[in-house]
Amino acid sequence: MENLSRNISRTLGVVAANWITLFGGLLALLGIYLFTVDHDWLAILVLTISFLSDSFDGLVSRYHESLRRAADLSPLTLKEESNLSWWERFNHLGITHLGRWLDPLIDKIRFIGLLWVVGHSPSWMTISLTVMAGLLTLVRPILRMLELGDGAANSFGKRKMHLEVISMALLVLTTRPLFGGENTLHLIPFINGITLLSLTGALILAVASFAAHAHNGWLAYKAKRSS
What we know:
Layout: H1 2-12, H2 17-36, H3 40-70, H4 78-82, H5 86-90, H6 97-118, H7 123-145, H8 155-175, H9 189-226
Helix pairs in contact: 1-3, 2-3, 2-6, 6-7, 6-8, 7-9, 8-9
């Protein structure tokens, strides 16, 4: 697995990780659109590639950062990055604050977009998850701009993403007419219960992730005030 990751990093390392992230985002939008026009299997294929790109951009950014460390170069600080043009930031070969904002944004577009398009989840759940996605999209760059932390993903957010993937798979497989005719698997109490449990878990972890970011930011603010 380590050799595979290294080979992928070297192969895709000819481009900046941010371009891979953007490509994955465009594929996510295309996959969501394909569901709206009932090209379900093609949508699943496109979204699968989009999910893979989400892993590849991290591999590539860490690969570039390892090359920078070998050349005795440190990661870009937020101040250093803010002095670059958008084009330079986007094409930087290494970890960027722009990438740290763009990557989770694409994840949320993919999940929330599918949630609204596929449907069959309670409206209060869909709205709540959408609101939390918006808050999480805002809080991390705000913390970085205020120099109250790097706004990196916390453990709640990482676990939330796993439940989001499970929820998306359940909604697609139990509601879309993948094998012809109407798909009513979501009406089976057991399957419906698992889907709701997965969505509820994602919502709880989203709230916990936001609370953790806000708490850490408050602690950093108090430490700056006292210093």
